Automatic annotation (TrEMBL):
Its cofactor is Mn(2+). It catalyses: a beta-D-galactosyl-(1->4)-N-acetyl-beta-D-glucosaminyl derivative + UDP-N-acetyl-alpha-D-glucosamine = an N-acetyl-beta-D-glucosaminyl-(1->3)-beta-D-galactosyl-(1->4)-N-acetyl-beta-D-glucosaminyl derivative + UDP + H(+). Its EC number is 2.4.1.-. It is a single-pass type II membrane protein. This is Hexosyltransferase.
Amino acid sequence: MTSSGPGNLLNACGEGIFKMNSNWKTTKVLGLMMLANFFIYIVVEVSRSYGQGRDIYSRQKLTPKHFWKKPEVSPAFWNRVQDRLDDIYYLTVANASKAPNNLQGIPHQLNGTSPCKPDTRVTTEIEDFKSLPQRFQDFLLYMRCRSYPLITDTSKVCSKPPYLLLAVKSIATHFDRRQAIRESWGRAGIIDGRRIATVFLLGKTDPTDHFPDLSNMVKHEAELYGDILQWDYRDSFFNLTLKEVLFLEWFGTHCASAKYVFKGDDDVFVNTRHMLAHLGNISVHKTQDLFIGDVIANAGPHRTRHLKYYIPESVFRGVYPPYAGGGGYLYSGNLGLRLRTISRLVTLYPIDDVYTGMCLKRLGLVPEKHMGFKTFDIEEKHRENPCAYKNLILVHPRTPQDMIRIWSWINDPKAKCYIAPTQDTKGGKRHKKNK
């Protein structure tokens, strides 16, 4: 048996105390180690947070300063009017199918009705208004007006759906040009198995512009040929854009079944047969967005005051979208209907072909350049060569006599031409010769 005397008890107590002291020291060491680890953790986390903070700060510096700030409104009048319109109708649909079918709610600048009165508020919104040329003052005062009644209508021109509608911009005094077009490239009826319809687009000659009164002559012409569309507005260069939107509205209402539309001036020659041949070779999937012509890109407003296309900085600032020269261009009827809708949401601009380019941009489209459109003419040495016109679609400018003469050339069954193409990767000229 083990003794349990006083000596043994003391020994046992000593051993217990020693063990307790040993355990306490171990606990203290462990505690200190834990504190040290915790301290290291804090230091590491603080360093990491600081580093992340610097990363965030550096990323913020890469973000544009005004990222969330609305861009400043342009001081130019047209830009400001369009900005206000865009604030109301944000165009997100490429084909403009969701654009409103009526003009309710659109700012007054775009919703003038006939009879239209001048909007005198523009005189206070444009700092240099009084110093602008008179044509600009007139345009700006009536810029919101885009609804005018027809004086002369032609209800039967599209009674049978045309394959190609020829819409020709003209003025009352240009009777000789219209007659030459009727007798040549604009002859209505069946050509190469396709139905062609022709309309001439006119405004009203104003005594202010020193025109003689030709209203009765135009009325008689309309009764005689049934191809005149004339609206009750002042026919002027800056109102060609108005003629554009009025035609699109008429087209959407009275001739929406036309498969293709050519729109051009009354001083161009058009090879209608070659145009039809070109359309016949276009694949179906390309017809919906078809818009071809002599395309001008990377252009902007002219700032030289005496030029025809002069635009003051107080009226417009920016660059022009790609656009087809107004001498003539060709587009599908489907696209014409979309242009009609989207034009209601684009402020009138004093240059009509630029305006059409603006409408196309709103639709997310770019006009396609076609080498057959020569709005700046062809080389002088080729102008008297009948074969030079065989593979062209449009040439500008040409007189009424030229139109009839060239039309007889390209329709002469005895005239034979061959084309000897030259190697030119840049789409160079082809040499045309008589055979």
